[in-house]
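This follows on from our talk about sequence and fold. I would like you to pick a protein and set down its sequence and fold. Go ahead and set the record down below:
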Amino acid sequence: MPQRAAPRVPTAAGRWVGVQNTCGNVAGMLAPMITGMLVDATGSFTSAFALAALVNVLGLVGWMWILPRVAPLRWDLVGAIHEVH
């Protein structure tokens, strides 16, 4: 995934991994708070599970859109990216 996000600059892959980790950690901090607010408001975990399911489906759709094809990548010396067939 990071190689797809920064195809022209191989050294930027580490930055993209950092962005991915940050997003995951922020979600990990917000999810319990949002779950608690939904449970307090509704008295049930149903809405929290529905929201979690929706977020997962949106993540799957986004992943399929961003990464349409999985293939090994080969970096050449000038920084261009080539898919190995």
